[in-house]
Predict the structure of Glucokinase.
Amino acid sequence: MKSSFWGDYLSRNYVVGVDLGGTKILTAVADRQGSVLSRVRVATGADLGQDHVINEIVTSVAVALREAGVSTEAVAAAGIGVPGPLDPQTGVVYLAPNLGWQNLSLGEILGSRLKLPVYVDNDANLAALGECVYGAGQSADNLVYITVSTGVGGGLILGGKIYHGFSGGAGEIGHITLAADGPRCGCGNLGCLEALASGTAIAKRAVALVAEGRGLGILSRAGGDRGGVSARVVAAAASNGDGEAILIMRDAGRYLGMAVAGILNLLNPSVVVLGGGVMQSGSILWEAMLETTRRCALSSALQEVSIVRAALGEEAGVMGALALALEKSQGV
Amino acid sequence: MKSSFWGDYLSRNYVVGVDLGGTKILTAVADRQGSVLSRVRVATGADLGQDHVINEIVTSVAVALREAGVSTEAVAAAGIGVPGPLDPQTGVVYLAPNLGWQNLSLGEILGSRLKLPVYVDNDANLAALGECVYGAGQSADNLVYITVSTGVGGGLILGGKIYHGFSGGAGEIGHITLAADGPRCGCGNLGCLEALASGTAIAKRAVALVAEGRGLGILSRAGGDRGGVSARVVAAAASNGDGEAILIMRDAGRYLGMAVAGILNLLNPSVVVLGGGVMQSGSILWEAMLETTRRCALSSALQEVSIVRAALGEEAGVMGALALALEKSQGV
């Protein structure tokens, strides 16, 4: 007896997740319990053009399925995270600057190439979902994910689902304004969290310090090379006890704490997950963040929340893509 | 033929809304289309104790029903807004400082007194819902409501419903931290929006100015009486062109704009509604708020949002209570 269309998809016991980044594509295959059966990493090759990138995605899915020993016919759905604003309903990517894409119907194109239902979402939203379901998030219904690296990004899980807002733009945690007269952000505004606490912001402050002939401890950590002053160098100098570096890391942590406190008071989440390279830079920034959060959040919101480090590292996005595919194919 | 229990409630064509305040109780009766048939206002008499207040609620509902010509048997549900943290699931009010209440099972008590399903929510959340459904909110799925008067409060409508957060504490917009070294807020923290832009904050700045022997234009607006310096007086002096008053109103507007921008970037709502006495104080604060919002919000979030004045005034809460009762009895 031939099964119906829906019955057919229901009997499909696997999902595919893809995290499409500016430099690499991570692809994974999992079963319905969320156990990962295979992982593949390939270079994006964004400079080789849109068709090349789409071919790389399709190939990486084929390789991941082969490594997992799963046929396409056994896959219920694929989820894919893309760096840029998009419409999760239609799968149209409005803009992906790192890929040179504009108004691309990625969901449709991949759906027809992979012969699967394909669900597209923003990479930061999927990282939030990944940490929520498989990482540090304890499958919380109300979770805020913040990633601090070159920039500051994030995603919101509200009521158990990714919260997209009215036009898909929610979760721009890096652009919460914290200092009306603060430094200019890449977005053009002044005093955004990203301009105060990102790796770029930390490095910029250190570079400015060194340019003034100060920050000698930081400069020495960079081997005396001004061009080598980075957030990582500042963090290392701070961990080593350098006063100026400690001040820079603490200030970044304080602004992060202000943002976290504001988010606690506004959204009353049960979990806040902080990830990204800068959050792994020792305890100085983390402690300053926690101290300011405790000082600025209402006790009612503070009592209920766990503030934790991300658990999945660079796999958060692909795990979220798997979670999205699972969630979307659950009802089928 | 006797109808079933649910069938019985479905045939009930009216709802009751109550806004329980520290000084007054507003009660209204509406039909299923949301047309208000009667309105009643009585004093809360909080100092006369809990039983008195509950009796006043029950009586005001009876009076409102009689004025509307509606019998209790024709009412599907009642909604009630309470000033303080509570559990909307159980109807337990944790704390209502203005009423002297603590851990009161209000939903249960009123349900048995009124012989109706009673739904309890926070007053600011219901004002948000009221403005969303019947006021300036255009029935938006994603709406942020901010009320600026003595304090700063608010509520979030996300995905078409009141967003409560993990433990009912969401929407504390007044306690978003905007200035790490700002003035102390009533909540004990520093630099909350409420400590920077509420009527109390505006008055405090003016009082301090006058105490320094400055702010003569403001003092003269208060009839030369230092004790008469209020936010209303500052607003009037500002509208009259007084430079110091203008500066105070503009600063409050700027902080409001910072908060609105942060909320736009975080939540990407389609409507922001601003109400409360301070928002009605002329155009200086409003324009400063808009200018800062435009400067600090991402253009993607800004393009999609309408920032509007509240339309319901002090009726927002009771209209929200009606909307809640309608929403909850829709499925019945």
The two ends of chain B are 20 Å apart (CA to CA). The first helix of chain B runs from residue 5 to 10.
